[in-house]
Amino acid sequence: MWRKILRLFFGPMVDEWESWRPAKRWSVVLRQVLTQLFLLAVLLAVLFPVLWILSMALDPRDISKPQDLRLIPPGASLESFRRVLFDPYRLLCTNPSDDSTCMTFIHLFWNSLQVSMGTALFSVVTGASAAYAFSRFRFIGRQAGMLGFIILLMLPAVATMVPLFTLLNAIKIGREPLRTTLLGLAIAYASGALPFAIWNLKGYFDTISKDLEEAALIDGAGPLQAFVRVVIPLSAPALAITMLFSFMTGWSEFLMAWLFLENPQRFTLAMALQSMRGQFATPWSTFSAFSILMSIPIVVLFYILQRYIVSGLAVGGVKG
Amino acid sequence: MSDAVLAEIPPPQAKKEKPLSKRRRREASQAYLFLAPALVILFTFNILPIGYAFYISLHRWRAVRGSFIGLENYLQLLGSPLNAVFVVAGIGALIAAYYLWRTALEQLDRRRAALRLAVAVLLIVGGLTLILGVDSMIRAAAEERRTQEYLLSILLTVFYSAGTVPFQLIFSFLLANMLFMNIRGKSFFRMIFFLPYITPTVATAAVWRAVAFEPRRGLINNLLMSLGVAQGNLPQWTFEAKGIVVLLGQWLGVDLPSWVLNSPLLSGPSLAMIAVCIYNIWVFTGYNTVIFLAGLGSISREYYDAAKIDGAGRWQAMRHITLPLVSPTTYFITLMGIIGTFKAINHIYIMTQTVGLGGPQDTTTTAAIFIFKQFREGNRWGVASAASFLLLGIILLLTWVQNRVAEGRVHYG
Q: For position B8, what pLDDT does the model report?
């Protein structure tokens, strides 16, 4: 009996299996319905915290603790979204008595965007070039280098956080240390994201046939031209996904940012969100509205790039 | 092309030796140019700090440098060096057992095989005893508080890996297989399943803690009450420091012997840790599903056609085609999952902040959290750096073991 049930669920796991046994029409329909129901159940389990965030964002009361379990709060309004977007953040001001020195959502957003774009560009540009070397050239230290990257990939970020702090503190830009600037933060994130970028891109480059590059080389192109004109355009999926992942690191990380940055004018969205969480009370509606607004760029990016996810993650890269 | 024709064409490599080595040198120099930007960044911002951290780990260093103390920080973390020897010997015994087991399976002579199997079993038992011995050492090290904390944090990290990665794998494999067939709204489901991964950790972890795991009004406890599973004493989730085995014993009304109750290993991960695990599974299952979808998509349909002609059933096709051919993906996910749990810090930070980071009673203090706490709260940079290097050693050992195990089982193409 249980076998039958299992078969009903997981039987048609691969397309071909539909034709495995000429199935009766009703059983195909039933299977489709059951699978859909099952997936919907999983969907609810996956979605409920997200739905809750949405519900709390619409709640006009700005409760300190989620009081009841009603999904649509009484008197739902978009007030908290307005508050997040247009009110200054009194927690993050250079001069606490003057509201005009406080951060606004737009300002935080701009900071986050700078850090995340910086991280993404740094890691993808340098990562792609290094990955190309690993994928196409033979040189002394190639094997050791690949191994080294995998080791770097495994090192917990906490291990280098404090030495990195000291190092970035020692490098001065103008009069202030690199550590307290957004550039410094982007570099710190990029150095953490780089091993994965190299690994992933190398795996993808390996799957691209060398014929086109060789044709370009015969036509008189240099290796750099072959790389930029031939390989880069062919690797759009992997480049896009690597960028998305690095971008996400910069967008949502907050521990290192709290450790490094000092001037509230440079704080990021993730830091602001974290600062709202009090030990005993959190302004849940504002918090939720903020996190929704903060996720929108990532969701949009993901939606645009989602057809690349499957091809752009070079799982074969494990081969080394 | 026949063999005769092939033989007439000279092998391309053998012809010119000298220009080739010159070309190689040029190739290498080009490679280094391509590598240069990444190397500069990696060297300055990764390798230099790592070297510096190693330098710190050899000193008594509390925010400012103290005296040089050599390996004392390391020994302080491991307790007596004997502890480390025991653990390494235990793991070594397990690895040796594994090798023996494999060679025994390859043997044709049955008696020899049986002998080797017996030796292997003995070795496994020996290895497990040694690792279990660590447990008693953790308790014996009670006077050395930091040793105890660190060894415990490694045990908790292992709990965290074991409590997440297998579940992630099973759930995401099943989901990917369901999504892989022709069902309606495939890309919609895919998008939604990815959502936990792309919403900010701060938000989702806070909501899980405050809405789902809230002891009095939380969703999960409400569900448990309405199902009649728990009535008076509801599980305290992120506030519960007792191990799951102890809690189950209480719930079933079984009196557990004190050596179970007092053992961090045998009493199991705390309920708080399980809450963190559930959150982790929630975040990464969808992500892994999408990666599994990529793996399933790369399997050529011809294999299934051939299997069908040969009269294989669906389950046989699943076992002999899908599982082996998707194994690189499985390996990738397992490896990344384990590394991820060893590095995880952000969501544990959010979920346990209200009871003190890594709490309650340090039952969610994984190795990464331990290091973070030594840095931030204790300012013990020397100890923290030493702990990082020991952790890296453990991760490397694990990866190596995983590689060995995967060698015979992962099939590429």
A: 46
Q: How many angstroms separate the CA atoms of A24 and A35, rounded?
A: 17
Asked if B135 and B263 touch (Cβ cutoff 8 Å), the reply is yes
pLDDT tens digits along A273-316: 888 876 567 788 888 888 889 989 988 888 888 777 767 775 54
E strand or H helix at A90: strand A89-93
Summarised one tens digit per residue, pLDDT across range B132-190 is 666 656 655 555 677 778 888 888 898 999 999 999 999 999 888 888 876 677 778 87
- Candidate from A46, A50, A126 with C-beta closest to B38: A126
Give domain A79-318's CATH superfamily. MetI-like (1.10.3720.10)
Label the pairing between strands B59-62 and B64-68: antiparallel
- Give the minimum alpha-carbon distance from B43 to chain A in angstroms, rounded to a whole number: 9
- Long-range contacts for B248-257 (Cβ within 8 Å, ≥24 apart)? none
A85 CB-near residues (< 8 Å, 6+ apart) = A105, A106, A293
- Most A-contacting residue of B173, B199, B339 (CB-CB within 10 A), to test interface: B199
pLDDT of residue B98 exceeding 90, the answer is: no
Tens-digit pLDDT profile for residues B292-328? 887 888 788 888 888 888 888 878 888 888 888 888 8
Name which of A81, A39, A82, A26 is nearest A57 in CA terms. A81
Amino acid identity of residue B275, one-letter, is A
Alpha-helix residue ranges (DSSP H) falling in chain A: 2-10, 25-58, 79-86, 105-136, 142-154, 157-170, 182-207, 211-218, 223-225, 232-234, 236-252, 255-260, 269-276, 284-312
B207, B308, B375 member nearest A158 (Cβ): B375
Provide the residue ranges of all domains of chain A, joining segments of one domain with +: 1-58, 79-318
Task: Check if B49 contacts A (Cβ < 8 Å).
Answer: yes
The ranges of chain A with pLDDT < 50 are 11-19, 316-320
CA nearest neighbour of B410 among A312, A249, A316: A316
A284 within 8 A of A101, measured Cβ to Cβ: no
Structure token pair of residue B146: 């930091």
Residue A109 is predicted with a pLDDT of: 92
Q: Phi, psi (5° rounding) for residue B199?
A: -80, 150
**Beta carbons of B41 and A126 less than 8 angstroms apart:** yes
**Residues, chain B, total?**
413
